[in-house]
Write a structure and sequence with these properties.
The complex is a heterodimer of chains A (588) and B (277). With 588 residues, chain A is of the alpha+beta class. Among the domains of chain A are: 2-119, Sandwich (Tumour Suppressor Smad4); 136-259 and 555-588, no CATH class; 385-422 and 434-485, no CATH class. Chain A has helices at 118-125, 137-162, 196-199, 209-213, 228-231, 234-241, 244-247, 263-269, 272-275, 328-331, 348-351, 366-370, 392-409, 435-460, 462-465, 499-502, 527-531, 547-550, 571-579; strands spanning 2-10, 16-24, 28-31, 38-39, 50-55, 58-63, 70-71, 74-75, 78-81, 86-89, 92-96, 105-111, 297-301, 306-309, 337-339, 342-344, 468-470, 479-481, 534-535, 543-544. In chain A, β11 (92-96) and β12 (105-111) form a beta hairpin. Chain A is rod-shaped and about 195 Å long. In chain A, 22% of the residues are buried. Chain B is mainly α. In chain B, α3 runs antiparallel to α4 (106-139). The longest helix of chain B has 58 residues, at 218-275. Chain B is elongated. The two termini of chain B are 55 Å apart. Classes of the chains: A alpha+beta (588), B mainly alpha (277).
């Protein structure tokens, strides 16, 4: 049949351009094939997409199933077509139009559903900038800013303003202001570590001494600031005005709650001989270089309890006048000494017992220490009768009464006794006691008492260990014992933990007791012995030792801390805090 | 020749930063706290902290200064060079301010945020030093838009070349044109690749089919394969371009928002320290 195909192309200005082709064929083939009578160049079109045949009944379109071809909007398969029908093949609309002369079929073809703008589609599919995801740096910035502020600032402040204090021993549980915790609490304070407000009582006010003193009420100062010689020195007034947290800082873990730096002390003590001569202290600096020789407090006069500090270097003046005669050498003899059950060898802790739970020794005393061997038996016939220790007059009376009793009751068997106290008499017969007879035993007793007292006090017992004297011309039985003063601590302002040194050292490595023949010896090691192991605070090959290794800042006997507190830390200030229901530990 | 901001004014701001670092380190080295151990509360701690806070404020001011074109004062290049070097010096100032005390608290939060901001800034600095050159080389004088136009043109050309080939080829080519995309999600943009690229699939499938093509279609296949290869190469370049752009942008999404979070943490840090003095 004769075919006229007209390809329509619409222009942008609305005009239509037409291009016609004439074909002659058995049937009209539609497809991508260049052999097709109607060439439809589009990838959506099959090679051979549809065919129109002429049959006796007219024109029919034949398509394969699922080819999507529609005739006037209806899916076609083997459908008759005629003039005016619109056949949709893929993106093309094919219209059967009026037949010009000599033609069997006339067709107009127009691409009505083009593929579209490739670039526009590609651009629509592609996301090539991060900002196209709706990410806004500004929005994220504000979110971050406010989230952080709310969590780390607003919530803790709200918690603080609404917090109701609980007793110190209670736990608080979670609290938002934990995020403010600047570091671990020291171990001694950790039991109140969840109670920020015990210390931080007022916002934007440094921790006040009142908070510290509510627990540490008995802590003493370094000196008595009220003393005129101290009050006159500006630096010392300054020290008195220091607050607790000038030295004690929390939230630095365990190591720093107490100040240990040397220069805290040496600021003043390095030149204290000049700045405060009336204190009679020696300049002291670093332990390894600038620490003076030890100056033990020795007994200057035991009778009057007078003490003085003497340097270990001053050997002439270094005399302990304890009122005792005690040779350490004799007691520590290797071959031993006579004990109550025969010979025994003594060592240091035979007498010096470390006090349980303390760094020092139990006090030395007659009853606790000496009496086991040195029993005050004055008459060997009666070892059960002993003299009372520390009571010289009482003891002498006891001796006289003892012998008077013997003289009167008899039973004495003393060959040196010049006069018998009692005459023999028959049983049941009461012998008359004459004045003569009465006098004689008492005279004997007095003589005996004086003899025994002289012996005991002067030689065998009291005088053996104590300095004794006899009041001449003051009548009988007038022995006196100089009061003894046994030093328990020669260095009362220093701290020395014997228990910490026992493991490594023998007593004799520091104390020359085995060669000490006199009780006046001060058996302390010189500072050089300490320096064998201990160095200054920066020592690298010795035990670093600072002032507070041995010395206390808060001295016993000084006024309590809190006296003379600066404004804002006064008891009145503390009372004001109490009124505000701030918890003061130990007070309410 | 363009002068890098790093060597700007003969390393003037590197010298400033070095001076800040040296001063901080020397002071810290010889500093003995009056009480306790080194921490933010000693005089040096307050000094370093105060200086660090001022520095952070000044560094953040750069975000405003850079938007004020011709705003007077030092040129923005000076600001940027100083921003980089003094930002790095802040690492030393802030770390020494901490006294190396860290914990689960707002103070360390501020420090960590600051470090992330600085690290992201360092990333950005290297990105700005390196990536623009890579980007220029990759673009070869074109732009991403031009590349995409060219890709679209190639799509049309491929379709045309495929018309003479089988239906299957046409479907593949059409799918490659209609489904291929450039960029995508954040990760996809940063990767610079599309592991399931329809064009790549089309290329390999068509190459496979070409081996079994009838002799008459060999020329058609050759043309189509050439076009597809060209398109694939262009796609790779376009995706690299997207990747470079994403690299230039991504760090700012950390640098800027986290610096504002840092500002919040810094305010909280300072208030907290004095609230519970």
């Amino acid at each position: 049949m004769e075919i006229l195909v007209t390809y329509l192309t619409r222009r942008q200005n609305g005009g239509v351009s037409r291009r016609s082709e004439e074909r002659s064929a058995e049937a009209v083939h539609f497809g991508r094939s260049t052999n097709a009578e109607v060439y439809l160049p589009d990838p959506r079109i099959r090679f051979e997409h549809a065919v129109i045949h002429q049959r006796p009944g007219g024109l029919f379109i034949e398509v394969e199933k699922l080819s999507g071809v529609r005739v006037n909007g209806r899916l076609a398969q083997n459908t008759p077509v005629g003039l005016g029908d619109v056949i949709s093949i893929g993106p093309f609309d094919v219209t059967l139009v009026e037949l010009p002369d000599g033609k069997d079929i006339a067709i107009e073809v127009e691409l009505v559903r083009p593929l579209g703008d490739d670039y526009a589609q590609l651009a629509a599919r592609s996301t090539v900038r991060l900002v196209d995801h709706g990410l806004s740096r500004r929005r994220l910035a504000w979110i971050g800013f406010f989230a952080v502020l709310v969590f780390f600032l607003i919530m803790p402040i709200v918690f603080f303003s609404q917090y109701t204090p609980v007793p110190a021993k209670d736990t608080v549980g979670f609290r938002p202001d934990t995020v403010w915790d600047s570091g671990p609490i020291s171990a001694p304070h950790r039991f109140i570590s969840d109670q920020c407000n015990l210390c931080h009582q007022k916002p934007f006010v440094q921790v006040m001494d009142g908070a510290c003193l509510s627990c540490h009420a008995n802590t003493t100062h370094h000196f008595d600031a009220a003393k005129p010689e101290i009050a006159g020195i500006p630096d010392f007034r300054n020290l008195a005005a220091r607050k607790c947290n000038s030295c004690h800082q929390e939230h630095n873990g365990n190591q720093a709650i107490s100040v240990s730096q040397e220069r805290f002390c040496t600021d003043c003590h390095g030149d204290i001989e000049t700045t405060l001569p009336q204190a009679a202290l020696k300049n002291a600096g670093s332990f390894d270089k600038d620490h003076p020789e030890f100056r033990p407090t020795v007994v200057a006069n035991s009778a009057n309890r007078e003490f003085k500090r003497v340097s270990l270097d001053d050997t002439a003046a270094l005399v302990e006048r304890s009122g005792l005669k005690f040779p350490h050498e004799l007691h520590l003899k290797k071959e031993g000494v006579r004990g109550p059950k025969g010979k025994e060898t003594l060592d240091c802790n035979g007498c010096h017992q470390l006090t349980k739970g303390a760094a020092n020794f139990d006090p030395i005393g007659m009853e606790a220490t000496c009496e086991r061997c040195h029993q005050l038996v004055f008459d060997p016939r009666r070892p059960d009768r002993t003299l009372p220790h520390g009571q010289a007059n009482n003891a002498q009376m006891l001796i006289r009464e003892f012998y008077s009793d013997y003289g009167l009751r008899g039973g004495i068997n003393d060959v040196q006794d010049p006069a018998p106290a009692f005459e023999r008499h028959r049983p049941g017969e009461q012998a008359p006691v004459t004045a003569q007879r009465q006098t004689n035993p008492l005279e004997w007793a007095d003589q005996q008492a004086q003899r025994v007292a002289d012996q005991s006090f002067g030689k065998t017992m009291c005088g053996n260990c104590h300095e004794v004297s006899y009041g001449k011309g003051k009548g009988p039985l007038n022995w006196a014992v100089v009061p003894a003063t046994v030093t328990r601590d020669w260095l009362p302002l220093g701290r020395f933990d014997h228990s910490a040194h026992f493991d490594m050292l023998k007593c004799s490595e520091c104390h020359a007791a085995q060669s000490s023949k006199k009780a006046t010896d001060v058996l302390l090691p010189k500072i050089a012995v300490c320096k064998d192991c201990h160095g200054g605070e920066k020592a690298s090959n010795k035990v670093p030792s600072t002032c507070i290794t041995c010395h206390d800042f808060h001295l016993p006997g000084a006024p309590k801390m809190g006296a003379g507190m600066p404004a804002g830390n006064t008891p009145e200030g503390e009372a004001a805090l109490s009124r505000n229901n701030m918890p003061i530990v130990g007070r309410n | 020749m363009h002068q890098s901001i790093l060597v700007f004014r003969n390393f003037r701001y590197l010298k400033w930063a070095a001076a800040v670092i040296a001063l901080s380190v020397v002071l810290y080295w010889f500093h003995e706290p009056a009480v306790g151990i080194p921490n933010g509360g000693t005089w040096l701690g307050y000094a370093l902290g105060g200086f660090g806070a001022i520095l952070i404020g000044w560094l953040m001011w750069f975000g405003i200064r850079k938007r004020r074109y011709g705003g007077g004062g030092a040129p923005v290049e000076d600001w940027l060079s100083a921003h980089v070097y003094l930002g790095l010096a802040l690492i030393f100032v802030a770390t020494l301010h901490t006294g190396f005390q860290f914990g689960w608290n707002v103070h360390t939060v501020a420090y960590v945020l600051m470090m992330i901001v600085i690290v992201s800034g360092v990333f950005g600095m290297f990105a700005y030093l390196r990536v623009p050159e890579l980007m220029t080389n990759n673009r070869r004088g074109t732009t991403l838009v031009q590349m995409m136009h060219e890709i679209s043109d190639l799509d049309a050309a491929c379709r045309e070349a495929a018309l003479a080939l089988g239906d299957e080829i046409n479907q593949i080519v059409l799918a490659a044109a209609q489904n291929t995309r450039i960029g995508g999600g954040v990760v996809r943009q940063l990767s610079g690749d599309d592991p399931a690229c329809p064009t790549r699939d089309a290329n390999s499938t068509v190459r496979h089919l070409a081996d079994h093509a009838p002799p008459g279609q060999a020329e058609g296949f050759r043309v189509l394969l050439g076009l597809l290869a060209r398109k694939e190469e262009l796609l790779a370049r376009a995706r690299r371009d997207v990747r470079y752009k994403a690299i230039l942008d991504i760090w700012l999404y950390f640098h800027v928002p986290l610096s504002f979070a840092l500002l919040g943490a810094l305010i909280a840090h300072i208030v907290a320290v004095f609230f519970y003095w």
